[in-house]
Protein backbone atom coordinates (compact mmCIF):
# COMPACT_ATOMS: atom_id res chain seq x y z
CA UNK A 1 0.00 0.00 0.00
CA UNK A 2 1.34 3.41 -0.95
CA UNK A 3 0.96 6.27 1.49
CA UNK A 4 0.85 9.91 0.34
CA UNK A 5 2.15 12.66 2.56
CA UNK A 6 -0.10 15.57 3.21
CA UNK A 7 0.77 19.09 2.12
CA UNK A 8 1.56 20.06 5.72
CA UNK A 9 3.96 17.13 6.12
CA UNK A 10 5.74 17.96 2.87
CA UNK A 11 6.12 21.63 3.84
CA UNK A 12 7.35 20.65 7.30
CA UNK A 13 9.86 18.24 5.78
CA UNK A 14 11.16 20.90 3.39
CA UNK A 15 11.49 23.44 6.21
CA UNK A 16 13.37 20.95 8.38
CA UNK A 17 15.70 20.02 5.53
CA UNK A 18 16.34 23.68 4.72
CA UNK A 19 17.07 24.53 8.35
CA UNK A 20 19.42 21.56 8.80
CA UNK A 21 21.14 22.39 5.51
CA UNK A 22 21.65 25.98 6.62
CA UNK A 23 23.09 24.87 9.96
CA UNK A 24 25.40 22.46 8.15
CA UNK A 25 26.66 25.24 5.89
CA UNK A 26 27.24 27.52 8.88
CA UNK A 27 29.38 24.84 10.53
CA UNK A 28 31.26 23.85 7.37
CA UNK A 29 31.98 27.37 6.14
CA UNK A 30 34.73 28.19 8.72
CA UNK A 31 36.63 25.06 7.70
CA UNK A 32 36.21 25.91 4.03
CA UNK A 33 37.35 29.48 4.61
CA UNK A 34 40.47 28.25 6.41
CA UNK A 35 41.14 25.88 3.52
CA UNK A 36 40.71 28.60 0.87
CA UNK A 37 42.83 31.21 2.65
CA UNK A 38 45.66 28.74 3.27
CA UNK A 39 46.12 28.40 -0.51
CA UNK A 40 45.78 32.13 -1.27
CA UNK A 41 48.59 34.47 -2.24
CA UNK A 42 49.33 37.55 -0.18
CA UNK A 43 48.27 39.99 -2.92
CA UNK A 44 44.86 38.35 -3.31
CA UNK A 45 44.34 38.09 0.46
CA UNK A 46 44.93 41.83 0.93
CA UNK A 47 42.81 42.83 -2.07
CA UNK A 48 39.78 40.64 -1.21
CA UNK A 49 37.51 41.10 1.78
CA UNK A 50 36.13 37.55 1.58
CA UNK A 51 37.90 34.72 -0.21
CA UNK A 52 35.65 31.90 -1.39
CA UNK A 53 37.85 30.53 -4.19
CA UNK A 54 41.48 31.59 -4.76
CA UNK A 55 42.21 32.88 -8.23
CA UNK A 56 45.72 31.46 -7.99
CA UNK A 57 46.44 28.48 -5.77
CA UNK A 58 49.82 28.62 -4.03
CA UNK A 59 51.57 26.26 -1.61
CA UNK A 60 53.88 28.82 -0.02
CA UNK A 61 52.32 28.57 3.44
CA UNK A 62 52.51 24.78 3.53
CA UNK A 63 56.06 24.79 2.21
CA UNK A 64 57.06 27.27 4.90
CA UNK A 65 55.40 25.21 7.66
CA UNK A 66 56.85 21.87 6.65
CA UNK A 67 60.29 23.43 6.36
CA UNK A 68 60.01 24.79 9.91
CA UNK A 69 61.65 22.41 12.36
CA UNK A 70 59.55 23.68 15.27
CA UNK A 71 56.25 22.75 13.66
CA UNK A 72 57.37 19.32 12.50
CA UNK A 73 58.85 18.55 15.90
CA UNK A 74 55.69 19.69 17.71
CA UNK A 75 53.59 17.58 15.34
CA UNK A 76 55.64 14.51 16.23
CA UNK A 77 55.33 15.31 19.94
CA UNK A 78 51.55 15.65 19.66
CA UNK A 79 51.22 12.39 17.72
CA UNK A 80 53.26 10.58 20.38
CA UNK A 81 51.22 12.03 23.24
CA UNK A 82 47.95 11.27 21.45
CA UNK A 83 48.77 7.65 20.63
CA UNK A 84 50.46 6.72 23.92
CA UNK A 85 48.07 8.79 26.03
CA UNK A 86 44.94 7.43 24.36
CA UNK A 87 46.11 3.81 24.74
CA UNK A 88 47.00 4.42 28.41
CA UNK A 89 43.66 6.15 29.03
CA UNK A 90 41.68 3.25 27.54
CA UNK A 91 43.79 0.60 29.27
CA UNK A 92 43.52 2.00 32.78
CA UNK A 93 39.92 3.21 32.44
CA UNK A 94 38.65 -0.09 31.07
CA UNK A 95 40.58 -2.30 33.52
CA UNK A 96 39.49 -0.27 36.54
CA UNK A 97 35.90 -0.20 35.31
CA UNK A 98 35.94 -3.98 34.85
CA UNK A 99 37.44 -4.49 38.31
CA UNK A 100 34.63 -2.42 39.81
CA UNK A 101 32.07 -4.77 38.26
CA UNK A 102 33.52 -7.74 40.16
CA UNK A 103 32.72 -8.70 43.74
CA UNK A 104 35.85 -7.32 45.37
CA UNK A 105 36.50 -5.95 48.84
CA UNK A 106 35.78 -2.22 49.13
CA UNK A 107 34.00 -1.95 45.77
CA UNK A 108 31.46 0.58 47.06
CA UNK A 109 34.22 2.64 48.69
CA UNK A 110 36.20 2.81 45.45
CA UNK A 111 33.08 3.82 43.54
CA UNK A 112 32.36 6.60 46.04
CA UNK A 113 35.95 7.85 45.68
CA UNK A 114 35.55 7.96 41.90
CA UNK A 115 32.30 9.90 42.19
CA UNK A 116 33.97 12.24 44.70
CA UNK A 117 36.78 13.08 42.23
CA UNK A 118 34.16 13.58 39.54
CA UNK A 119 32.44 16.28 41.62
CA UNK A 120 35.40 17.83 43.47
CA UNK A 121 38.69 18.66 41.76
CA UNK A 122 42.02 19.32 43.44
CA UNK A 123 42.67 22.47 41.43
CA UNK A 124 45.55 23.74 39.35
CA UNK A 125 48.05 24.55 42.11
CA UNK A 126 47.76 21.27 44.09
CA UNK A 127 47.97 19.31 40.85
CA UNK A 128 51.06 21.24 39.80
CA UNK A 129 52.70 20.57 43.18
CA UNK A 130 51.99 16.85 42.84
CA UNK A 131 53.42 16.77 39.32
CA UNK A 132 56.49 18.64 40.51
CA UNK A 133 56.94 16.40 43.57
CA UNK A 134 56.83 13.28 41.40
CA UNK A 135 59.53 14.66 39.09
CA UNK A 136 57.31 14.88 36.01
CA UNK A 137 57.97 18.54 35.22
CA UNK A 138 59.31 18.98 31.69
CA UNK A 139 58.35 15.38 30.88
CA UNK A 140 55.84 14.10 28.35
CA UNK A 141 54.32 11.94 31.08
CA UNK A 142 53.15 15.10 32.85
CA UNK A 143 50.64 15.48 30.00
CA UNK A 144 49.41 11.88 30.28
CA UNK A 145 49.48 10.62 33.87
CA UNK A 146 47.50 13.43 35.62
CA UNK A 147 44.57 12.80 33.26
CA UNK A 148 44.98 9.05 33.03
CA UNK A 149 41.42 8.17 34.06
CA UNK A 150 38.37 10.34 33.48
CA UNK A 151 35.79 9.65 36.22
CA UNK A 152 32.80 10.11 33.93
CA UNK A 153 34.22 7.75 31.30
CA UNK A 154 35.01 5.24 34.05
CA UNK A 155 31.46 5.25 35.36
CA UNK A 156 29.95 4.86 31.88
CA UNK A 157 32.46 2.11 31.03
CA UNK A 158 31.44 0.28 34.21
CA UNK A 159 27.77 0.57 33.32
CA UNK A 160 28.48 -0.81 29.85
CA UNK A 161 30.29 -3.83 31.32
CA UNK A 162 27.38 -4.43 33.70
CA UNK A 163 25.01 -4.60 30.72
CA UNK A 164 26.95 -7.53 29.25
CA UNK A 165 25.10 -10.78 30.14
CA UNK A 166 26.68 -12.43 33.17
CA UNK A 167 26.07 -15.84 31.59
CA UNK A 168 28.94 -15.17 29.18
CA UNK A 169 31.34 -14.57 32.07
CA UNK A 170 30.10 -17.67 33.88
CA UNK A 171 30.53 -19.81 30.76
CA UNK A 172 34.09 -18.58 30.34
CA UNK A 173 34.87 -19.31 34.00
CA UNK A 174 33.44 -22.83 33.67
CA UNK A 175 35.76 -23.37 30.71
CA UNK A 176 38.71 -22.51 32.98
CA UNK A 177 39.27 -18.82 32.18
CA UNK A 178 40.52 -16.47 34.87
CA UNK A 179 39.50 -12.83 35.26
CA UNK A 180 42.20 -11.56 32.90
CA UNK A 181 41.22 -14.05 30.20
CA UNK A 182 37.54 -13.21 30.64
CA UNK A 183 38.37 -9.52 30.21
CA UNK A 184 40.54 -10.00 27.11
CA UNK A 185 38.59 -12.79 25.40
CA UNK A 186 35.00 -11.90 26.27
CA UNK A 187 34.61 -8.34 27.54
CA UNK A 188 36.88 -6.45 25.12
CA UNK A 189 35.47 -8.05 21.90
CA UNK A 190 31.94 -7.19 23.06
CA UNK A 191 32.91 -3.64 24.02
CA UNK A 192 34.21 -2.31 20.70
CA UNK A 193 31.58 0.48 20.54
CA UNK A 194 32.61 1.74 23.98
CA UNK A 195 36.32 1.57 23.16
CA UNK A 196 35.75 3.38 19.85
CA UNK A 197 33.66 6.15 21.38
CA UNK A 198 35.85 6.85 24.39
CA UNK A 199 39.00 6.28 22.37
CA UNK A 200 37.93 9.14 20.13
CA UNK A 201 37.12 11.32 23.14
CA UNK A 202 40.51 10.62 24.72
CA UNK A 203 42.34 11.13 21.40
CA UNK A 204 40.74 14.54 20.86
CA UNK A 205 41.56 15.49 24.45
CA UNK A 206 45.21 14.49 24.06
CA UNK A 207 45.53 16.08 20.62
CA UNK A 208 44.24 19.42 21.93
CA UNK A 209 46.70 19.49 24.85
CA UNK A 210 47.58 23.14 25.36
CA UNK A 211 47.27 24.52 28.89
CA UNK A 212 48.98 21.60 30.63
CA UNK A 213 51.80 21.77 28.08
CA UNK A 214 52.42 25.41 28.97
CA UNK A 215 52.12 24.62 32.67
CA UNK A 216 54.36 21.57 32.89
CA UNK A 217 56.81 21.88 29.97
CA UNK A 218 59.74 24.30 30.09
CA UNK A 219 61.68 23.08 27.08
CA UNK A 220 60.34 24.67 23.84
CA UNK A 221 61.50 21.58 21.95
CA UNK A 222 58.81 19.58 23.78
CA UNK A 223 55.90 21.92 23.03
CA UNK A 224 52.80 20.42 21.47
CA UNK A 225 51.33 21.58 18.19
CA UNK A 226 48.64 23.59 19.94
CA UNK A 227 51.28 25.70 21.69
CA UNK A 228 53.03 26.31 18.38
CA UNK A 229 49.69 27.30 16.84
CA UNK A 230 49.21 29.81 19.63
CA UNK A 231 52.61 31.28 18.89
CA UNK A 232 51.62 31.59 15.24
CA UNK A 233 48.43 33.41 16.28
CA UNK A 234 50.49 35.79 18.41
CA UNK A 235 52.77 36.34 15.44
CA UNK A 236 49.70 37.03 13.35
CA UNK A 237 48.43 39.62 15.84
CA UNK A 238 51.83 41.31 15.90
CA UNK A 239 51.97 41.30 12.12
CA UNK A 240 48.69 43.21 11.94
CA UNK A 241 50.46 46.19 13.50
CA UNK A 242 53.24 46.21 10.92
CA UNK A 243 53.53 49.09 8.52
CA UNK A 244 53.15 48.56 4.80
CA UNK A 245 56.91 49.00 4.39
CA UNK A 246 57.57 46.17 6.85
CA UNK A 247 55.10 43.94 5.04
CA UNK A 248 56.77 44.71 1.73
CA UNK A 249 60.10 43.79 3.28
CA UNK A 250 58.70 40.45 4.45
CA UNK A 251 57.40 39.76 0.95
CA UNK A 252 60.77 40.66 -0.49
CA UNK A 253 62.34 38.02 1.76
CA UNK A 254 59.95 35.43 0.21
CA UNK A 255 58.21 34.81 3.52
CA UNK A 256 54.53 33.84 3.13
CA UNK A 257 52.01 36.11 4.88
CA UNK A 258 51.37 35.15 8.48
CA UNK A 259 47.62 35.01 7.77
CA UNK A 260 47.98 32.13 5.31
CA UNK A 261 50.57 30.44 7.54
CA UNK A 262 48.14 30.51 10.45
CA UNK A 263 45.30 29.08 8.37
CA UNK A 264 47.52 26.33 6.97
CA UNK A 265 48.75 25.42 10.44
CA UNK A 266 45.19 25.21 11.79
CA UNK A 267 44.17 22.98 8.87
CA UNK A 268 47.15 20.67 9.36
CA UNK A 269 46.46 20.39 13.09
CA UNK A 270 42.74 19.67 12.60
CA UNK A 271 42.92 17.30 9.64
CA UNK A 272 44.21 14.16 11.46
CA UNK A 273 41.25 14.05 13.85
CA UNK A 274 38.83 14.58 10.97
CA UNK A 275 40.43 11.70 9.07
CA UNK A 276 40.22 9.30 12.02
CA UNK A 277 36.50 9.76 12.62
CA UNK A 278 35.20 7.95 9.45
CA UNK A 279 37.04 4.78 10.48
CA UNK A 280 35.38 4.84 13.91
CA UNK A 281 31.95 6.02 12.78
CA UNK A 282 30.41 2.53 12.70
CA UNK A 283 31.31 1.86 16.32
CA UNK A 284 30.98 5.47 17.42
CA UNK A 285 27.25 5.57 16.58
CA UNK A 286 26.73 2.68 19.01
CA UNK A 287 29.21 3.97 21.54
CA UNK A 288 27.41 7.26 22.09
CA UNK A 289 24.50 5.23 23.50
CA UNK A 290 26.75 3.54 26.05
CA UNK A 291 25.11 3.49 29.46
CA UNK A 292 21.69 4.49 28.16
CA UNK A 293 18.55 2.96 29.63
CA UNK A 294 17.29 0.04 27.61
CA UNK A 295 13.58 -0.40 27.12
- What's the helix-strand series? HHHHHHHHHHHHHH
Give the CATH level 1 class.
Mainly Alpha
Q: Give the CATH topology.
A: MetI-like fold
Please state roughly what percent of the residues sit in beta strands, choosing from under 5%, 5-15%, 15-25%, 25-35%, 35-45% or over 45%: under 5%
Rg measurement, Å? 25 Å
Q: How many individual helices?
A: 14
Q: How many beta strands in the DSSP annotation?
A: 0
Largest sheet: none
Query: What is the rounded distance between the termini?
Result: 30 Å
Mean pLDDT value: 79
Helix fraction by DSSP (H/I, runs of at least 4) = over 70%
The general outline is globular
Q: Which spans of ≥5 residues are poorly predicted at pLDDT below 50? A: 291-295
Class per helix and strand makeup = mainly alpha
Question: What descriptors fit this protein?
Answer:
single chain, 295 residues, mainly alpha, MetI-like fold, 71% helix
Molecular structure report:
The chain has helices spanning 7-38, 42-47, 60-66, 69-99, 107-119, 124-133, 151-162, 166-174, 179-190, 192-207, 211-216, 225-239, 244-252, 258-287. Helix 10 packs antiparallel against helix 14 (258-287). The radius of gyration is 25 Å and the shape is globular. The protein contains 14 helices and no strands. With 295 residues, it is an all-alpha fold. It is found in: Cell membrane.
